[in-house]
Fold each of these.
Amino acid sequence: MGIRLDGVSKVYDDGTVGVAELDLTFAAGELTVLVGPSGCGKTTTMKMINRIIEPTTGRIVIGDDDVTRADPVELRRRIGYVIQNVGLFPHQTIRANVGTVPRLLGWGKEETRARVDELLATVGLDPAVHGDRYPGQLSGGQRQRAGVARALAADPPVLLMDEPFSAVDPVVRERLQAEFLRLQATVRKTIVFVTHDIEEAVRIGDRIAVMSEGGRVEQFATPAELLGRPANGFVADFVGADRGLKRLAVTGIDAEDLEHPPVLHAEDGLADARAALQRSGARWAVVLDDADHLHGWLSLDRAAGSGTVGAAARRMEAWVPRDASLKAAFATMLQHEAGWVAVLDGDQFLGVLTPESLHSALRRSVEGRVPETAGAASA
Ligand SMILES: Nc1ncnc2c1ncn2[C@@H]1O[C@H](COP(=O)(O)OP(=O)(O)OP(=O)(O)O)[C@@H](O)[C@H]1O
């Protein structure tokens, strides 16, 4: 269920224009991030969707429903809402908190409890351990997970998230973001997500609206487009001078980037391997096992004597899946102190990235030809 804002404005009682004449469409099943400097109207825009703030002009359509004049209380039951510091009721257990909307909708006790426990498990909380605790007895990250579970309880098609991960430390925050993306890949809600953090925006957004004062949309684009081709000076400043580096996380590996060293099989004899290496002029070869899975590598100087390639080869653990980002490939190379990383499709070997091929991929990434990663999650 998509969301459409048509000429939506909010003028506050004191005359402040929070948002002026905004047209914006949030695609069904996508996570759209509203990002921009403080006071630009992100929160105002989001809160008009569930009518916590009443728009002054314009129309808001969810799916096929014009909800501009819908009953706000009824509307909010169809829209999940996650906020910073969660807003859990402190005197209710986690189970009671997560069951709030199902209870309001009149679900039965058993049904509600089953749904609540299933959701707690989905967001990584053990119902038996955490279900009967009070919010004050959970960590910040656990409270945030409970907040997400509560917002999803009645399976609403739309989720609004207002800086949901900003109250926890950076490490927990990254973990929550990754968990949340995995969850979104299965539930596919239409999500409007507010943040002022561009790093968070490019990590989690399918699409990003960069806003300036008065709710003006300066650019509406995918993370890779935004970082590769900022529409104007405002966006370029906002995404930062290191946008080339940020872009690594959202740029995928292109088949053209791969190098193809000679391939040997573990059961081959060393004499044949040596001959093959000398014929190709290469200094080393990739070694695959009998199922064509990555085994390791063999350098020319180890291809001496008799015996099999498998026995002489060095094992190699540095590999990335083909939908990995360039950033992940680079990090893997550094972590293993390796001169190359293998790129695999499932178990199948596709080719390798070396420092040279990675470098040209980086240049391509920064210059703007972009095969995007399947999801920024793999960053
Ligand atoms: N109740 C209000 N009365 C008057 N002005 C308001 C009110 N609420 C917000 N504003 C103003 O509307 C503008 C947009 O505010 P909004 O909260 O939407 O910004 P934001 O982008 O979410 O900012 P932040 O990142 O700081 O939360 C700001 O200039 C703000 O001062």
Amino acid sequence: MTLQIGVIGTGMIGQDHIRRLTKVLSGIEVVGVTDIDQARAAAAAPEGAEVFATPTALISSDNVQAVVICSWGPAHEEQLLACIAAGKPAFCEKPLVTSEAAALRVIEAEVAFGRRLVQVGFMRRFDADYRRLKAVIDGGKLGAPLMFHSVHRNASVPEGLYTSEMPLNDTLVHDADISRWLLSDEVTGVEVRVPRRSSRGGELRDPVFVLLHMASGALVDVEISVNISYGYDIRGEVSCETGVAALPTRPAAVISDSNGIRQAIPEDWRERFIEAYDQEFREWIVAASEGTATGPSTWDGYAATLVADAALRAVASGGFESINMIAKPGLYGPPTAMAAE
Ligand SMILES: NC(=O)c1ccc[n+]([C@@H]2O[C@H](COP(=O)([O-])OP(=O)(O)OC[C@H]3O[C@@H](n4cnc5c(N)ncnc54)[C@H](O)[C@@H]3O)[C@@H](O)[C@H]2O)c1
Ligand SMILES: O[C@H]1[C@H](O)[C@@H](O)[C@H](O)[C@@H](O)[C@H]1O
């Protein structure tokens, strides 16, 4: 059976996902697209796909069985709620939503529906290197994880569109999610330090240094640099009681020329996580074909939203900002460290 998919938002990642859904993966057909920029939607539409005037029209179409949301974060809530109301599985790019209140409304709707329908685009969980790192930590041979050093560097970000809040509410959400998942832990508080500003980003608050306090007592430090120019560089190292486990340096062709011997660094997220995005969709397609979702959930999107909110408060206060989660609904699995009481 072929799953008929509609894509909302045909910008950078929408186009990349349409490419993988039409040229890489099987078991699906992109039957519809929409974007507030109708010309962009028409240009991105695969042959034979319908260009819908609005997300509502796409979601309610009888031809669309599942939805991929790649619009801007502030638009996600309305589109997710419409998918849940229609009972259609939705893959939603990060961030899930852009406020705690919005995250709670999506949780409430999905819990009332009674089955998981939403998968959030935290693609690092599908990356083979991160999966091997988690297997080592879960294996327990290195003892308990004590510290996680997470480095998140972008070569550049879209000028004018990427604001000073975004290192914390757009970029950090990946590190927040991967920390919770890798360490099987929950974030209970956040501190942020702002070092000397990089002259490459103009007035942008860049870089930032974030400290995540985990429920177990483990600490996570995150470097976010979004104008590092040399490439898209993602690193991670977990210090445990009797050893250290780290992401490997990615294999790349070794080039020897008059500049020396060197290996290329990915240019951006599309290249670094290409296999992870393919794999997250493979797993989503299986789940969505069964009318549900897998992997990062609305609950995980909610948790990352709380971290982003706390980080923004921490910049303003200069101190420690705590996080208080609601009790975890059973739909999202057993209680976590924080919600256990
Ligand atoms: N997982 C990742 O690594 C990753 C990478 C890039 C982007 N993203 C996320 O994907 C989303 C899109 O990012 P992008 O880089 O493609 O941005 P983009 O600006 O290139 O594209 C967004 C598109 O959505 C459209 N849009 C916005 N609001 C809409 C609405 N209400 N209805 C219909 N269309 C609407 C815009 O016109 C635009 O074409 C963001 O949430 C971003 O954080 C995730
Ligand atoms: O939307 C993008 C995307 O999520 C990337 O994975 C991240 O590295 C960028 O900082 C962010 O702006």
